[in-house]
Amino acid sequence: MAPKLPLHHPVEQSSTASAGGQAAHSAPPRGLMRWLLTTNHKEIGSLYLIFSLTMFFIGGVFALVVRAELFQPGLQLVEPEFFNQMTTMHGLIMVFGAIMPSFVGLANWMIPLQIGAPDMALPRLNNFSFWLLPVAFTLLLSTLLMPGGGPNFGWTFYAPLSTTYAPPSTTFFILSLHIAGISSILGAINIIATVLNLRAPGMRMMDMPLFCWTWLITAFLLIAVMPVLAGAVTMMLMDINFGTSFFNAAGGGDPVLFQHLFWFFGHPEVYIMILPAFGIVSAIIPTFSRKRLFGYASMVYATGAIAILSFMVWAHHMFTVGLPLTAELFFMYTTMLIAVPTGVKVFNWVATMFRGSISFEPPMLFALAFVVQFTIGGFSGLMLAISPADFQYHDTYFVVAHFHYVLVPGALFAILAAAYYWLPKWTGHYPNLKLAQWHFWLSVIGVNLTFFPMHFSGLAGMPRRIPDYALQFADFNLASSLGAFLFGASQLLFVWLIIKCVRGGEKAPAKAWEGAEDLEWSVPSPAPLHTFEHPPTFRHDEK
Amino acid sequence: MEERQQCGSQRARGVRRTVARTLFALAGMFVFAFALVPLYDVFCEVTGLNGKVDTQGQALVAEEVDQTRAVTVQFVTRTSAGLPWNLEVETRQIRVHPGQSTEVGFAFHNTADSAVWGRAVPSVTPARANLHLRKLACFCFEEQRLQAGERIELPLIFQLTRDLPADVNTVTLVYTLYPVDRDEAALQARADGDKGGEA
């Protein structure tokens, strides 16, 4: 009897979903409990997106503290100890609290709609994996108020800085990373289960929109590397509290082992933060070029190739720790090899636009800016991959410029593009065009003013994570700080725009964009709480 | 309706299978992360990377001394924070012939006014030389206990084998002193004893 029970469960659920769904519409559970207990993929998706937007502003304020201190040479506003906490917390919050959850939020909202599924495969797990996040980040932020302050060892938390020399709050930091990691893992399991099992009848894997493909591969990366991160922070925890010596040379351990473990997680993590962005851009560019995506299959294979290669390049973050020559060369060449599948993607996007009938709605603006600026970040990545040159670039602002180019005008712009693209589907209204254009241009100018000068200060030797700098870097830093405040302030426009869009605006039809072809555009705008209770039949000739 | 139910149960089975597989992969990767710790040591030992050296004395390789070649061996000593010791070496640098065994004296001095346990952790640069360096006796194989103000001399006897790569002209041996917790030291001694028994 017992094994039969789960078999009946989803059937019951789908029948109650249609019956109970009606009830839910007439009398939705009110107040906080509705959001605490919801198992609806759209509501959980919205929760994820709102949470990550909140974290984006918290992490952004930390970044502005850093930029305010670096506005002029010398120490003006904050103590160096607090400066270190700000750089660390900015990185941790943006990576684990803003970028990753916003992609999970988009996946929650859009994957079931794109594959014609009624909901995620494991709705209750979905609820749990979201609500772990506020717990994790409340814990992480609370370390700032603890004696000795919060984490101050950089977002990479290298041992022994994060073990022997760390503030007492580090144990709480470890716990919060564990919780956030479990949340990501559960989210990944859910996405894999949904994509592999809940596709509409007739939809093959190679019929899926690219966003589903890139997320599926991202989810596999998460499954592979989040346990390694969990292992590494567990070793830290034991080194700090239980007298082990994983990373302590005095007890026979090795601090370099920490770096190997961290970057074995950390490099695939970089792709976890960019592959879903590739999927988003691969949806937007064909829509506004009014052409099919050029080279769909090669896009899928390129994504897979990037994912596999990401496990073979981790030591390019560690060129200066004293690797043997063979390892330096191996990691240099594998890193450069990643440029090939990435190049395939960029050329495919360009080829999609070639002879297309292009229009420049806000999602397209952000997607185009993504392609150009992500490529700039890719090029500086190639420079950093050159092992002999990296000895000069290592731990300078050049590295800061590089990874901010792939993460801010890269990942973040893709998320903003996705928001503009799917806001009509979420709210039933088009976002205000004028405001969106202001937001776009201020963001582009702000982002480049902030990060482009960092290339120069970095090449000239300005070290990262230091609250003061030599006078020769003053002008570059002035420009960067002005750009950062412009960029930060212009994101308030985005919040205002979203609030306006939720409240009203030009009504959007089911197919909100002329060239949009995927399944999500076949449901009404705004998407009702329950969609695809009867799976749609997918026709192959669409592709 | 019947068909839909069947489809639903098929999906449920598929979901459960996927979840079981991903959980299995997760557990595997978590174990793998911890397995990387011993694997890392094994990898370093096999390749001689990272200056990891043997923790036990090795036998002298009887081979003819290569008088035609001389290699510079440098000694660097360091004391980590928290250990009130000085470590001095009788000579900073010597020239040796491959195949020849050489003894160098190291002087340990406890400047504190209480007895302390300490340990010297070795490292070899370039790492490639590591596989060709044989230590016949070394103070770094065990922990030392020095009384307040005590000063002792301990030897290092080593041999560079003749198959040392031709382009290695200088070998640097670094010894870093670390404090040892007394309880930990007892544990370590027992663990070393076990290892000795196996060998």
Automatic annotation (TrEMBL), chain A:
Keywords from the named record: Cell membrane, Copper, Electron transport, Heme, Iron, Membrane, Metal-binding, Oxidoreductase, Respiratory chain, Translocase, Transmembrane, Transmembrane helix, Transport
Residue ranges of domain Cytochrome oxidase subunit I profile in the record: 35-539
Transmembrane segments: 47-68, 88-109, 130-150, 170-198, 210-238, 270-288, 300-319, 331-351, 363-386, 398-423, 435-456, 476-499
Gene Ontology cellular component annotations, sorted alphabetically: plasma membrane; respiratory chain complex IV
Main location: membrane
Region (Disordered): 1-27
EC number(s) reported in the record: 7.1.1.9
Keyword Kinase attached: no
Catalytic reaction list: 4 Fe(II)-[cytochrome c] + O2 + 8 H(+)(in) = 4 Fe(III)-[cytochrome c] + 2 H2O + 4 H(+)(out)
Functional pathway: Energy metabolism; oxidative phosphorylation
Annotated GO MF terms: cytochrome-c oxidase activity; heme binding; metal ion binding; oxidoreductase activity
Cell compartment(s), UniProt: Cell membrane; Membrane
Membrane topology: Multi-pass membrane protein
Compositional bias (Low complexity): 13-27
A single BP term in Gene Ontology: electron transport coupled proton transport
InterPro entries to which the protein is assigned, alphabetical: Cyt_c_oxase-like_su1_dom, Cyt_c_oxase-like_su1_sf, Cyt_C_Oxase_1, Cyt_c_Oxase_su1_BS, Cyt_c_oxase_su1_dom, Cyt_c_oxidase_su1_bac
CDD domains named in the record: Cyt_c_Oxidase_I
Family: Belongs to the heme-copper respiratory oxidase family.
Function noted in UniProt: Cytochrome c oxidase is the component of the respiratory chain that catalyzes the reduction of oxygen to water. Subunits 1-3 form the functional core of the enzyme complex. CO I is the catalytic subunit of the enzyme. Electrons originating in cytochrome c are transferred via the copper A center of subunit 2 and heme A of subunit 1 to the bimetallic center formed by heme A3 and copper B.
UniProt cross-references to NCBIfam families, sorted A to Z: CtaD_CoxA
Name this protein carries in UniProt: Cytochrome c oxidase subunit 1
Species per Swiss-Prot/TrEMBL record: Halomonas icarae
TrEMBL record, chain B:
Predominant subcellular localization, coarse grouping: membrane
An example Gene Ontology molecular-function term: copper ion binding
Subcellular location(s) of the protein: Cell inner membrane
Gene3D superfamilies xrefs: Ctag/Cox11 (2.60.370.10)
UniProt keyword annotations, A-Z: Copper, Membrane, Signal-anchor, Transmembrane, Transmembrane helix
Domain of life, source organism: Bacteria
Membrane-spanning ranges: 20-40
Topology with respect to the bilayer: Single-pass type II membrane protein
Coiled-coil intervals: none
Pfam families given in the database record: CtaG_Cox11
GO CC, any one term: plasma membrane
Family as reported in the entry's similarity comment: Belongs to the COX11/CtaG family.
PANTHER family documented for this protein: CYTOCHROME C OXIDASE ASSEMBLY PROTEIN COX11, MITOCHONDRIAL-RELATED, CYTOCHROME C OXIDASE ASSEMBLY PROTEIN COX11-RELATED
Biological role: Exerts its effect at some terminal stage of cytochrome c oxidase synthesis, probably by being involved in the insertion of the copper B into subunit I.
NCBIfam families: PRK05089.1
Protein name: Cytochrome c oxidase assembly protein CtaG
Native source species: Halomonas icarae
